[in-house]
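user: can you give me the structure for this one chain? tokens are fine.
assistant: on it. calling the predictor now.
[tool input]
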Amino acid sequence: MKLETKVTKLFNIELPIIQAGMVWVSGWELAAATSNNGGLGLIGAGSMKPEILREHISKCKAATAKPFGVNLPLLRGDAEELAQVILEENVPVVFTSAGHPGKFIERFKSKGMIVVHVVSSVKHALKAESVGCDAVVGEGFEAGGHNGPDEITTFALIPQIVDAVKIPVIAAGGIADGRGIVAALALGAEGVQIGTRFAATIESSAHENYKNEIVKAKDNSTTIILRRAGFARTLKNEFSELAIQQELKAPDDVKTLIKLSDKKERLGIFEGDAKNGMLEAGQGAGLINEVISVEELFVKFKKEIEEAFERLNGFRND
């Protein structure tokens, strides 16, 4: 099966599916497996030091001949060093997030790199387009991890961004199966970025405890925490309840919230403390019922996409 969109042409991939560059999850194994199965794999630089990122890029190059990329959070204190590694390693694709999209774009473009920026509003999509980004990821509030303050859902956000910009739009947030992929295409997106579903794969570098918590999740298993310190969607646990209570107790004490959440992503996602760690996950977690390989996941995606198109075609009465 092959779907041809502006996104597949842009990245030279078979399916318009991008695996999100998640902290403590998206290492070289996950990225390479995604690319080898027809999507675009991303290494998540958000939890890596420069030398670790270089190692993951090198291993990814050895594991796949297909295009892959790196996700770079621009607000990191060592973003300059991480960007330099990306430049020196000639990574073909860079997804930037959490910061000004023009920060490194001229340097990336000078090396022929494709640059995509993650946005949560029409305003930020227009800004990304104006500085020369090749595409944008429109991330709805259903997404796991850090979210936009306007709380715009994917279903409302994507068509508005599509109407506002000329560059390709990639939908993200709450997409975990083929039905969601087809729905995003129907909204005008040229592709999708999927996070939580890839987090619960064999190749994900996350701890098994975290993967199992995703599998156990239901429709109402996520919550928003740290509203005063960046917004984050996580699975409900003792830490999320503590964070919510702290914010209710002292809503303006941002320093305490930041200190409270320090290193909690690593504790929960990478070290596997399901009670006291921060378990970032999107609302699509309730659709995930097993931990499988990336290869099995792509077989599943293809089957679900075909079934979704068949169902839609069944409504036609020409």
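assistant: here you go. The CA atoms of residues 96 and 117 lie 5 Å apart. The two ends are 26 Å apart (CA to CA).
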